[in-house]
Fold these 4 entries.
Entry 1:
Amino acid sequence: MTADGPEKVAAIYLAAAKDQVGDERSLKASLEQRALLVITTSGALVALQFAIAAVRTRVQAFAVPGIAVTLLIASLCLFVLSAGSALAINLPVPQLVVPPATLEDHFAEGWNERELHRVLISQHETEIAVLGSLRAVNRRKAALLNVALAAELLAVALIAVAVAITLTA
């Protein structure tokens, strides 16, 4: 192995770690965008429920069976859970970042072969730590998104059942 062999290997591992960090950042953005879609959908469907309620109160001949009302109330609660979970996904979460002073310290030091090796190891350790932090945040966001989607799906199913009951009553 040549003298610059370990540095080349370290650079390869560092590049791989940076790619993983980039992938996790993209996943985080994707989860947050999907959460916004859940919020929008839940909001629209809650508005639809209010329209149903308005029709019920305005038209005397329009009678919604009691079980359908119960299902609509349950679906409204699920939409609130769904939207709340989706909103929680977009809450600011502290994440591990590299302080600028640390980067400045690395560049202020003299560059010799020993220092280069130490800096490469430090960079790799930092990228791995950032990667771990991002993955932990993304796991929490994904779990919240699963709750939001499941609640929304169940709410839509309850509305469908309530409408079917009302139409067949």
Entry 2:
Amino acid sequence: MKFKLVILVALISSSISSKGQVIPWARTPIDTSYYKLAMENIELRNDLAKYKEDFDRQLDGIDRSISTASALFGAMSVVGIALGVYISRQYDKIQKAEIAAREAADEAKRWKSWIEKEPTRIYKLIKREETLHILQKLTLVPENIKNVQNHLLTSDLEYTDFDFLKRGYLSIRLNSQSPHHSEYYQNYLHVLFHHFAFESAMDRQIRDDFFTHIHQSIRISFASDLERVIPELIRAFTLTDVKLWEKEINMFIDAISDSYYSSFPRWPSFIIERFNSASSLVEFCQILDSEKLNMFSLLFKKALIDSAAASNLIHDLVDKHAFDRLTAKFRAKIDEHDRMNSNDI
């Protein structure tokens, strides 16, 4: 029985391997469609896998292209934004430059108009800057006064400039071993006399040297210089008790008496007119009376007797009595002088 079954299985396998052919001795055909479908299914699966692989590869390429395009677009966006910011800033700069240019043009027009309208003022401003530079340099190189004296004498100095000259002068005075010490010394005192007579007279460190040197200062001065200096000295004398200035007043009057201006009648009157009180004028004249009777003091006494300005200063009996006694004394001096001159003749 078992043998028969083995033979049957062998016949069926042989029939299937013959791909559906009818076994000559078996007239019943065998159906092979399932095998064909299986093979086609395998081929379809292979094709599908191949197509899927191609699709995935194409999809990856597309993703890479999109990524590249996105990166490029992002970079271009950043560049575009940066370029926009740069252009905006440059535009702002151009606008600011245009505004600045218009303002500069307007400022230039204003300067041009100012220069055309006020050349004298501009000249004074420029000269003032030059003078200030010279004065500041004197504090460092006080000997430079020799080179800049003429410039300073012809310049308009301000009150604050006195300190520059004082520092330079005191520095020169301390350095008495300098070979040109006396020349520098005189240069400073000339400038101080010309511009700062009041300040120099009131300054305790300069006063003695100032009045000791006043002879030379008056000798080289012009009339216009004296017109400016004399009121300053009178202001210093009358600021306190005039009697305290006896030594300085004598030096001042003696310097004028020895100068070219001693014989000019205008100067006694000019001095008298600078006083603003009768008492100060009387005290000043009393000091003057103690001096020798020279040409200037004689002219001064005559001017005082005839001075309307002096008479106008008298406001009370005390002043009047003092003034009358002084003028009577002056008349006696003048009469004595005239008699001496007539006897000599």
Entry 3:
Amino acid sequence: MKMRKFSVLLIFLFILSFCHAQNNLKDLVYAGRSFTWGMNMSSYDLVILLRSDGTFCEELEEPDWQTKITGRYKKIKEGYFLEYMDSSVENDTITIEEDKEGYTSIYYGGTQMVKMDVANKVPSGFYKYSSASSSGGMGTGLIYVGTQRFEGYNFYDNGTFDRNSTGGVMVSGGGDGGGGIGGGSNSESSSSGKYTIKNGLLTLFNRDGSIEKHSFFYDADGGEDFMVALDGSIFFYEENEQLKSGEIHKNPDPVQPKIEPSTSDVTSAINVLQSVKTTHGGQAIDALKTLKAEVVISGMNFKVLLDNERHYIRLESLEPSFPYIEQLEGNSGWTYQNNSYNEMPAERINEMKLTFISGILGLQKKVLDKTKILETLEGGENLNLISAQISNEKTGYIINTLNNSLSATIIIKEDQKEVTYLSDFKMVGDLFLPYKETTVTNETTIEVFYKSYILNPTFTVAEWSKKR
């Protein structure tokens, strides 16, 4: 299914860079991750090698990355000017800025980057890569037909390694009123052997006799968010004991129960939603006026502020190396990145506004009173789907009929739909809220983890203010 993109470029950074000795000179590497946010969120990793001879390479996944030349660079006052060999590619600049407190910020391709060191060793531990795609938290993400990929490496102090990877294809049905959900496939692979590392060149000697060569750089001062760059992709250190043993964390089985249509009336569907509302807090949902949360998205920490009365939302990075804010203010909004403010595009404004009619907030009385039931579908595995319309927006709920709880939320755009699966529910005051959201598109998957919720906080003016 071809996806229509509803995107706003939001670049946040995970970051990595290094220096290593070669012929008594130093090469430099900068790396980070770019995100495209909106109804479809995708990500790609960016790693660039600046050699001491004045050449640079951005294709560190290629076998000849050590000698491959993407272009030449020169030192300028602002940082480094990059001139590409391919004349069809626009030249670029790595900008280096220093503030009054002595903190250095590095920007490249719209992404903020941090320079780090690298050594001729592989720190032992498990490193995981997962592709990322979502419209973000608060129950507004959606699923398209798509794929997901996870890959992990265990490196041991004795010079051995093992590797696991898994991928899957999600098939979400189409049709009016929500359609069916079902179908999919999985694939897995694994290998093990010995490794060597020298000047960023990682050589894997597999037990089947094959030999692989990869580029490899690591964050020497990563702390809790320790990460490495392997073949131009960013992997994160994983503390989970199960992962250390070599078993990669797997995404929820993409094969979902097929939901077959059946006859149901509007009154019954509304009664079901009222029962679901009771399960998740009843009148406490109606009383939810403001909310504050801390979330982790692909290893990055963010703060979320939500004002349900004014229809304000603020997403703010808590990472010192990446100052970013995205703020919805009713029918308008703005973003802050790269030390500048910009108006929020209309597409993103509309997407963020869907937060107030979906998920837990979609069960508020003022929303249910405006809800028009379109269809109810029943299926196996104790799951039902209710599709509805609120004003001009089509929404949906996947209900667990065993306990009348919310398993997923849906927003339908034309012939496309995305679903956010909710899990790890816990009581927060009088509300039953998810601490994990899993969103899949036809490109990749992202997991959003909630660290904390604060219900009905009183916000100060400063919390919604722009940075000075």
Entry 4:
Amino acid sequence: MTTKNTAPEAEQKATPRSPQPVGPSAAAADTPLQTVTLSHHLRIGGKDYAPGDKARVTADYARRLRAQGYVART
């Protein structure tokens, strides 16, 4: 016998405490995260980011993006 869940879908989804990190090594929970502002169009994890968009990435990936010129200077 199965029971039908009558709770609204919005209540079933867990709300994240912070934005989901993107990019390589994003799944590692013990790595520090940084928010970067992108200076060029970039596709990360299947999502397109326009110049000026912010992305939450690991510190290592942020360093690599800065070295390649994809992060805006602040």
